[in-house]
Amino acid sequence: MGSTKRTTIRLSDERQRLLEKAEEIVASGPNDNPPTSDVIDAALTHLIESEENIRKLREELPPSTVQRFNTSVLGLRYRTAIESQWR
Question: Are strands 74-77 and 81-84 parallel, antiparallel or unpaired?
């Protein structure tokens, strides 16, 4: 069995606010309190799927349409590449 990596995440006020907003999205209802690990897994899955979807869209739609799907994390530039703006 492989080793498990453990990381302690420091929660700045902004990171805590983002996590709380993400929990609301992942929760199945107003009384659901999903584990932080589920919220992080959902966010990572969404990021990966979004990047794949943008790559596929750029072959089907004009650049101006695809650029409307840009976010602060993923963005299409000049229909040549997808760049991560995170970090």
Answer: antiparallel
* DSSP for the chain, written as a single string: -PPPP--PPP--HHHHHHHHHHHHHH-SSTT----HHHHHHHHHHHHHHHHHHHHHHTTTS-HHHHGGG--SSEEEETTTEEEE---
Taking the C-alpha atoms of residue 73 and residue 1, their distance in angstroms, rounded to an integer, is 34
Instruction: Enumerate the domain spans of the chain.
Output: 13-84
Q: 45: closest CA among 19, 69, 26?
A: 26
pLDDT tens sequence across 18-34? 999 999 999 999 899 99
Q: Which residues of 34-73 are buried (b: 16+ CB within 10 A; e: fewer)?
A: beeeebeeeeeeeeeeeeeebeeebeeeeeeebbeeeeee
Whether the full predicted model's pTM is greater than 0.90, yes or no, is no
